[in-house]
Amino acid sequence: MKILGIDPGSRSAGYALIERRGRSLYLLDSGTMRYNRQTNFNQRLGLIYQSCIDLITKYDPDEIAIESLIYAKNVTSLMKLSQARGAMIAAFMYNKKYLERLFEYSPNLIKASVTGHGHASKVSVQKTLIMIFGEKVFKTNDESDALAIATCHALRRPIRDVVKPPPMESAR
Prior knowledge:
Radius of gyration: 17 Å
Number of strands: 5
Number of helices: 6
Strand order of the largest sheet: 3-2-1-4-5
CATH architecture: 2-Layer Sandwich
CATH topology: Nucleotidyltransferase, domain 5
């Protein structure tokens, strides 16, 4: 099962593609999508939408996990993040395959699932991810956050949902 983790943002967003085979997790790719700050915000929303379409076209994940909204003191920043997240979700939902395959997780649940502590620091999350996936240099926090989101989803999925037995043949 291939899982795409998304750390949403209006200026940059992280993505990570992992594969779960049985109880094992493998990192396939990760990175950061950057959106031009010079572009007006409505144009940027179009870029965000298109970058998400490009991701699912390129990687064809089985499921997508995205971080839910966080509390922010700055209302303007929260509004822009909400709109960017909405553009991302719209892009994923445009492909009918993901109508029931998009999952949301709160930041505290993601940290708790990965490290065992819901208020873990970014450094602690990154160290745990390195223990799971092997040596990795994260270019941005968005990238490591996206990997944590995908990992959280993989760890929370029951193994029976990942490894489905072959269909039984009917007796004739």
